[in-house]
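Onboarding guide, step 5: your first structure request.
Type a short instruction followed by the sequence, for example:

Predict the 3D structure of this protein.
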Amino acid sequence: MAQKIKNLDNEFTQSQNKKKKTVSKTRQVVRKRLTLFGGVLILIILIMVTMLILQKNRNDELAQERKEKAAEYEKMQDKEIELKEQIKRLNDKDYIEKLARSEYFLSNDGEIIFKLPENQKETKKNK
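The system replies with structure tokens like these:
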């Protein structure tokens, strides 16, 4: 019951075979092009994602540095205010006299300075 199949070798079958070969070649070319362009597209996407991640990390680092600099700036402003107040005090004659009397034991004419021993100061504070 096996039937033998015989291929016809006429113009129509030859033209059909040529069409099939050209279609398969164009499909192969299209597949290669799609593969190539798809690979390039994936590569570009990977590069862009990598750049995005690196840029985000850099932005985070810069934001942290900016916060630190802002804190340092506030400290410097506080110190500047303190130094300006100290300049005002040092320009005051009464403050300078008080400082000279307490720190350097200077006195006006006719004044006598008594220095108490450290132990007596502590006992007076405890009473």
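Each response can be followed by summary notes, for example: The chain has one domain: 15-108.
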